[in-house]
Design brief:
heterodimer; A: alpha+beta; Folate-binding fold; two-stranded antiparallel ribbon; 2 helices; globular; B: Gyrase A, domain 2; Alpha-Beta Plaits; six-stranded antiparallel β-sheet; five-stranded antiparallel β-sheet; 4 helices
């Protein structure tokens, strides 16, 4: 069972109280982009065994979206952080580095 | 105008705890910047309560204010006063980026009372309800089996549960099953 701390209401919310929102930090390629870029934006997703960044919504709670960094292999949660950001904050990256030295995910490491 | 009645018209059930539909309760959803002084004053004028912090609920009888999310409050007022209080609030908030809506008729309210009240709700919501973790003065939004609900405590043995009116019957049936005689778990 996955338990994430909602950064907006401070609740340790259990998985059934949350709604998964897919991969985090996608850059949108809309009108004016090439077909390849649009295809990749729509369909190409990470599928890592290990460190992963996701969007979650506290749907049966405060209703806010937030980000979570976790390990898909062990279900270990490295931290959750605000949705008002385009990349993982430094403290989250540091927390991951402390436990998974040498991790990479997309362009982040 | 026809006379308003609540979803289950004060239905009640006695088991390991007493479950009762509380009848009509005036409720106003207020969204805006909670650090705004104008908004805090509008809440104070309507309920006599100060602005709640994260997950706090200041409720006294039929009046009170509950923290719902970083930009949302649930303002409780007596049902007969809701129109007047809403008008006063809307007037006070003109010029402020905020929204107040009367949601009284969209909700149902239940009370669960008795020494096993925490247990009854604990069977339905994925929430730590021990007296160490959950106390009067706090509110928690969660789910009750399959529907959304929020709850706070009036006193140490009385829980008050709010859900959507359309789910009132479902929630009452859930609470009845959870409060069946002989179904104490003995955790809380």
């Amino acid at each position: 069972m996955l338990i994430l701390n909602c950064p907006y209401c401070g609740v340790d919310a259990e998985e059934t109280e949350l709604a998964a929102g897919g991969e985090a930090h996608l850059k949108r390629f809309g009108p004016g982009s090439s077909d390849d870029e649009f295809h990749d934006y729509l369909f190409m997703r990470e599928n890592p065994k290990g460190v992963h960044f996701e969007r979650w919504r506290h749907s049966n709670g405060c209703g806010k979206w937030f980000h979570a960094a976790r390990c898909t292999q062990t279900l270990e949660v490295f931290g959750t952080y605000s949705a008002q950001t385009t990349e993982p904050p430094k403290e989250i990256k540091d927390a991951i580095t402390a436990k998974r030295p040498g991790w990479t995910w997309r362009e982040y490491e | 105008m026809s006379e308003p009645i609540s979803a289950l018209n004060h239905a009640s059930y006695d088991g390991i705890a007493k479950v009762q539909e509380c009848g009509l309760q005036g409720m106003i959803t207020l969204r805006g910047d909670l650090s705004d002084k104008v908004l805090a004053k509008a809440v104070k004028d309507a309920t006599g309560q100060k602005m709640p912090g994260q997950r706090e609920a200041f409720v006294d009888g039929e009046s009170g204010v509950c923290w719902m999310s970083p930009d949302e409050l649930l303002v409780l007022v007596p049902y007969v006063e809701v129109e007047a209080k809403l008008a006063a609030m809307t007037n006070a908030l003109s010029g402020t980026h905020a929204l107040a809506v009367n949601v009284s008729d969209a909700r149902a309210v239940f009370s669960i009372s008795g020494s096993s009240a925490r247990e009854v709700l604990g069977k339905l919501a994925p929430v730590e309800l021990s007296s160490k973790a959950f106390q009067p003065g706090q509110i928690r939004r969660s789910r009750l089996a399959q529907v959304a609900g929020a709850f706070w405590m009036d006193d140490d043995q009385t829980l008050r549960v709010v859900c959507f009116r359309s789910a009132a019957d479902y929630v009452f049936n859930l609470l009845k099953v959870a409060a069946q005689p002989g179904s104490e778990v003995g955790v809380y």
